[in-house]
Design goal:
By secondary structure, the protein is α+β, with helices and mostly antiparallel strands. It contains twelve helices and 16 strands. Pfam families: SpoIIE.
Length: about 375
């Protein structure tokens, strides 16, 4: 190192939101003698990485993709001596990878300082996302439909986690998602998850779902339980659409201490639990979709997770997919795909399920959009 590093967090907080990669690269060149630096952001499918400092395009660095998937730093040979890959993640949200070429392998103290740089950059990018289009633009390899733009902007993120749990979610087709959506919120020891399937097509379905999501958020942020959240959203949708359109929704509230799950099943999303080598569907009493009738009332059902359990929720675009009118994915391919995720973290499991769904369609265009959400409860 040429001199002692100044706090990179202070530098980033004083930087314009669209200049975070350049300031980070200069910091690494000055204080760590970095030969080359690249900030790679994950695209919407989490299958590609796009550079922010080099020319726009897709980066083919396989080691960087492994770092994104594993969320562990990687060290190997590079053009200048050593190439280091560091995950860019914030509260479990996988944003991308910081790639640094150094003249020599870093010692433990330098490695820890570099990890801190990556962490500070991830938090800064997450905070800057609402104030610049630079990072969103790099995420997209093609133009989103208007419905997809609305849905992606409404998401809470694509992953979340701490020492108690890991949570991942994915929407597909990423650039043409319509009424399917997921939402979550963490408050002390309570984790709320909702998966929705808004009726209709295109922007109409997206607007329906946006109304339901924001109504549930409004209730939740005032301290309401999932019954009140469902009832407020149902009333809002019925007032707007008169029962002509509705949103099939599964609401879950998980006690991260005891493992108890409160559930309101208001439609088509299905819930499964993986325990040991077995995967079983959670049988819930299906209640009315949100917005179907005015002043609808909902009831909570309960089941319990055990430490190490995996909870999976899929929309009907997953379990009911039936290209060509044959057997559904839920009947013939879903559980095979789920078993293939057994050794994967929740953030990778959602991608494996969606990959299985794409293979099931065998190149045919899906008739419906799809959501998969996966929670690993560690306790």
């Amino acid at each position: 190192m040429s001199d002692r590093p100044v706090p990179v967090g202070a530098l980033l907080r004083a930087t314009a939101p669209d200049r975070l990669p350049e300031v980070t690269a200069e910091h690494l060149r000055r204080h760590f003698a970095a030969d080359r630096v690249e900030v790679l952001v994950a695209d919407l499918t989490l299958r590609r990485l796009a550079p922010l400092l080099d020319a726009p395009g897709t980066d083919q660095d396989a080691a960087a993709l492994r770092c994104l998937a594993s969320q562990r730093p990687g060290t190997g040979n590079g053009p200048a001596g050593t190439r280091l890959h560091l995950p860019l993640s914030c509260w479990g949200e996988r944003l991308g990878v910081l790639r640094v070429d150094l003249p020599a392998r870093p010692d433990p103290e330098q490695a820890e300082q570099l990890r801190i740089v990556a962490d500070e950059l991830a938090v800064a990018i997450r905070a800057a996302d609402r104030m610049t289009d630079r990072y969103r633009r790099a995420q997209c390899s093609q133009r989103l439909t208007m419905a997809a733009e609305l849905q992606w902007d409404l998401l809470p993120g694509r992953s979340l986690g701490d020492e108690r749990f890991q949570l991942g979610g994915q929407l597909e087709p990423a650039y043409d998602v319509r009424g399917d959506h997921f939402d979550w919120a963490l408050s002390q020891d309570r984790l709320t998850i909702t998966v929705l399937n808004g009726a209709g097509e295109g922007l109409d379905a997206a607007l329906l779902t946006a109304t339901a999501v924001n109504a549930m958020r409004n209730a939740r942020r005032c301290g309401a339980d999932i019954v009140e959240q469902a009832e407020l959203a149902s009333d809002a949708l019925h007032a707007r659409y008169g029962g002509g359109l509705h949103a099939a929704t599964l609401l879950l509230e998980i006690d991260l201490v005891g493992g108890w799950v409160d559930a309101v099943d208001a439609g088509s999303p299905q819930c499964m639990v993986g325990r040991g080598g077995e995967i079983n569907q959670v049988r819930l009493e299906q209640q009315l979709p949100l917005g179907m009738f005015g002043e609808a009332h909902y009831e909570i059902e309960r089941f319990r997770l055990e430490p190490g359990d995996r909870l999976l929720v899929v929309s009907d675009g997953v379990h009911a997919a039936a290209p060509g009118g044959g057997p559904t994915f839920g009947e013939s391919g879903l559980f095979t795909a789920l078993r293939a995720t057994r050794l994967q973290p929740a953030t990778e499991a959602v991608g494996t399920v969606m990959r299985g769904l794409r293979e099931f369609h065998a190149g045919a265009e899906p008739e419906d959009d799809a959501v998969t959400v996966c929670l690993d409860w560690r306790r």
